[in-house]
């Protein structure tokens, strides 16, 4: 068994695993249960190399002696955290911000109190707070008359350095309107540089969410109008989440809002807050003194993202065959009785024409869906299936559309149709893994995690995974490994 000398694989004994797990939890809040032990070992192995420390026991002794702001802790945190993000990630959340929360701020704040303080907690490399800055720039009337402060904090100092630089590659702009890119970024040396008027709206700061020292943002009660903390607390244990939520509540102004990720824990973790629902998304609000809720939610769990399965909207019935036998027994239109040579050439020509037309239509449907025109994209998909019900790419796009609408029963059904037709469709296997993981069904998630991982390991490391928006096999492996 390797003992973790530099350059070697770390294989923790049960006692070593418990020591590192508890120390990292106590200092950072990052929680590594038994199922994530391999992730912890990979991070520690990378830390040994970067810090030039000879073995795992020496690393533990140094970490125990130093506080978490020591450079060695930065090395370990950088190795353990993955900042998977991009501009305007999750369109529904930005729709909620624009149409619901910001509208309330505009209506409530008069000309004498046009101030907004917003905190992006766990901001990674800055795409989220900069997206908020762009949204405000486009949404707020009389912007120059507002006093706006946006804070971005993270525990990973390497991410913060990238955020401060404000320079991004094309990968950070997947699903972003090209007009946004043209208006707010300067293309230079094959990178996109944020314009100064947006960059100056955001202040970045190192912060450990569990250490609310005197000089931290937490030291100011009733300070923020809005806190956004998405896909951060999923890496914490329940006690850490409780502490963080208490601090968020304290930091919000009365009437302030909290927005969390769709895969975050259930609303019972946020008992101090009032729960509001807008177009299927939940947001949390700190009540005003003596305020009575006008529209209380009796069953907030039913509106949670992902929603309860009973909320699934009307299912689209495509008469899908449930077995290979049924599939083989389907009645297909008969071809004209022509000579065999004529039949082959005419069928091939017809098939080629259909494939070209179908690909064109599928690309159009995908583009419409990316623009948020889900109904139009869905109509094209359904028309394609009327002509040929055996197209896995169409079912995959329908699964993505259903996911965007939070119709998770429909998404599950379409994902399964995709893998039924094409078992090596990596992104459909990954979609099922992610869906079951978000619903807390670890048994089913494990099945599709294994399927996805097995398929990815067969691909070239730097090869692009089909239908993944240019993710390499290695990158997608990193993403699934950190999430399970």
From TrEMBL:
Keyword annotations: Methyltransferase, S-adenosyl-L-methionine, TPR repeat, Transferase
SUPFAM superfamilies linked to this entry: Chemotaxis receptor methyltransferase CheR, N-terminal domain, S-adenosyl-L-methionine-dependent methyltransferases, TPR-like
EC number: 2.1.1.80
Pfam families reported in the protein's UniProt record: CheR (PF01739)
Record bears the keyword Transmembrane: no
CheR-type methyltransferase domain sequence ranges: 5-289
TPR repeat residue intervals: 392-425
Keyword Transferase: yes
GO molecular function ontology, one term from the record: methyltransferase activity
Protein name: protein-glutamate O-methyltransferase
Organism annotation: candidate division CSSED10-310 bacterium
